[in-house]
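FIELD: query
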Amino acid sequence: MEKCMSNWKYVIKQYRKEQNHFLEAIFTQSNGYLGMRGYHEEGIPGHDGIPAVPSAEKIESNPEQFIAGYFDKSPLTGNSMVNIPTLKLLYIYLNGEKLDLSAGKVSSYSRTLDMSCALSERSFIWTSPKGNKTFVSFTSFLSYPRRHVYLTSITIKPVNWSGEAILADTFDSTGLSQKQTHYGIVSHGDFDNGHFCEIRTNTSRLRAVMAAAYDIPGAFKHETSKSELQDKKAVKKIIMTASKGKICEIRRYLSICTDFDNDAGKTEIRKRAFNQLSSAKKTGWKNLLAEQRKKWAELWEMADVKIGGDPERSFKLRFYIFQLLQAYRPGDSRLSIGAKFLSGEHYSGHYFWDTENFIFPFYMSTMPEAAENLVAYRVNALPGAMRKAKKKKFKGAFYPWEASPIDDDENCPEWWHDKGMAEPVCIPCGNIEVHINSAVANAAMQYMSFTGRKNPDRIGMFRMLVEIARFWVSRGMWDKGRFSIRNVIGPDEYHEYVDDNAYTNHTARHNIRAALEIASDNKIARKFGVTAREIELWKKVHGSMELCYDREKKILAQYDKFLSLREIDFSQYEPAKPLFRQILPEELAKLQVAKQADVLAIFLMLPFSYDYSLMQRCWNYYERRTIHDSNLSAGSHAVVANLLGRKKEALKYFDKVLNLDIGNESYNVNEGLHAANAGNAWNSTITGFAGIRHDENFLYCCPQLPGHWRSLEFKMFYRGRKIECTITQKKISFACGKGVPIKVVIEGKLAKVDGKERKIAVSRIPCGVVFDLDGVLVDSAICHYHAWKAIADELKIKFDEKKNDLLRGVSRRESLMIMIEGQIKLTEQQIEHYMHRKNELYKKLVDESGENLLLPGVKPFLTILKMAGIRLAVASSSKNTPSLLRQAGLNEFYFDSIADGNDIKNSKPHPEVFLLAAKKMGVNPSKCIAVEDAPAGVEAGRRAGMMTFGVGHADLGKCDFRRESIEKTSPEELFSLLAKL
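FIELD: result
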């Protein structure tokens, strides 16, 4: 398929019948209310009607259209999104021959999706089997400002013939939803110069009225027939006299309204549809298109993301943002977003955890009103979640794994029995994929933190979080003092009925912590009936949750038995085919393979909660064991890879995301677009490459731009302030609109922005923090003291803790000389002997101490500095630095460089070790902070040209900044210091 990707337009230049099904999804038109697949207006090539039973293997088209919230009940699939009658089917007959692109010849073909205004155009010259040539074009758009209105312009120009041209405008109701009929036509008839069709669903009893009318400019002769009902099809014909070389143009206006519409008011549904149609027709094509362009310009003004230097990836990203803008509109909290948007019936249009985990961040940042509606949808569904929990004999709220808009019940069937199946199959997801609760809770927490909005439903969110915490506490059990959550499915659905899934347990613990914070307000606690006893139980569960840490591998175990399963050899399987189609489920469950990110997804949700080395080790273990058989997976890996500074891997997974739908890499795009993947395209860019993250205190920007990207530009709302972000390889700028004061940390440098309009510009010259080791990050002082004390005892000289304090920050030789000064003299040979002897004693004591050497608060502090984009180094005079870091668990991933006594000739207070550390991590010493606990070290840092940061109680002389310890140092203080460099 020849295709052209311009800046805003997806263009197809060659017609290929085999691509029709795929392109129906790609060219889906939607406005958040109505969605229509991009099927051909003139009908399915090679077919006289539409398929009765959609089947991706047997047909070349799914001519489907859906209305958000228009659902009916189904005995098989719960509530199903209804595939309503065709809204744009216009059979065309040219001089007695039906226009059919599978017959005759197609030339001069062009198909374009203009994403700047959601305008679709298709044109071609069709040479019929009898040799008649006709130029035909269709131009259409689904109005965003007028959500009930759809417009199509049809142009017919005979090239070598004259005769009759007929358009049969057809509302065809023979299409099914999930292989079932969900509605019937209750009336049809003529309206204006067009017609209408009214339907009603079988069980939910929702009506919908669709009406079409025409504007036929020009003087060519035409007439219209009366509306007829033919085999469940409401048909209106326009018969025109076409002349060789003359243009026949028809502008078709369509409106649709339903009983479910939140703007229904008291006006009768048919009248509403007619009013919408009449108003649109009166406004006219030109003005409606102008409205459309204006509204889409407003949407893009906030949502567009520009990648400078990478036009192909920039276009692909824009395609997915376009789908997100089409998919959902603010204003109706009864609705959420289905797994296929409104582009296909797969999953029955149900709402999954996909929305909160992967799609929600886009709306939270670019369209806060929409994000508020999405959270409100879950708040409104709390009664159903509480009923489900009670039904399953738990407390609190247990949200549906599959939800729908017409009730708040579980829509995931417990059993599936279709034609041809010997016996029903158990579907456990609705009962044991309990991490849906984590997604719902986290979206509410993220919304409140990121937007800072004090909306009226904040209390509703609080109650939801409290009820989710109650569920977790009732869902788990105690086992040998640990709180265990058993019999679940985590994000990796290849392993079912497992105990202590890490993602489930860690996110549940996070939910409980949020509930504890809420209940700390006595007034709110009383309002929700939270007792002191219940709070104590929550604290106990939070502190005793099984966290699945494997001490041998120093990683999180995906679940209790995962690490004991057999390894998998991926080379034995076809990479383009999902594993579940190659291995039986019971065999898959025995292998160390994940369908999608599971443990790594924890870090996607809670990036500030884990130490950096743990995240890196988990990446190394699980990334190569993940098969990515879910469209949710690549995006998660792209974000986490950037979080961990793995640029090459991040770009690899970003490309997987970008190509999933556009490149049909999943081979099932014909079923509908992958909504979560569209969200992940944005997440991978903004959370990933731009490094935008946040916690309760700061908005962080820590970019990881690929080397060939010149720039990355985007906008977002943060705590009510519009921020325009521009990131280049050399500079980062934030243009902040008016609003509440905020704190922004840009690559480790703090900017405090007051409520006025402000522009922040930060040069991307790297900054770093260089730590002394002993007494700052670890405390092996007691090991040093006991080792020197043993030497003193051997030498029979006096040595106490006061003298030991004089040895801080100086070399082993100098320490020995200070210790024996005024007491005894040693030969050079004896000096070497006792230096070696002391070191051996010291190393033995260090080995026995292990991670107990680590000072409190060090790992969280280092992690947040890494996450903020600060380069870190160790500068120690000790030759034992490598072993000391290893024993303390700091040898991996934290530090960009290490300089120690093995690398230098001069000990502190000489600046050599600090200068070397800065050079190795690629930072100018003047852009570094030296963190020290000894006077010699402070002086060495000062001589190196670094800002000095003293910790501890010793007299350190003149320091630029002092704190008692790393534990007593807030990251904000360090960010403020770096901003001064």
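FIELD: remark
The first helix runs from residue 20 to 26.
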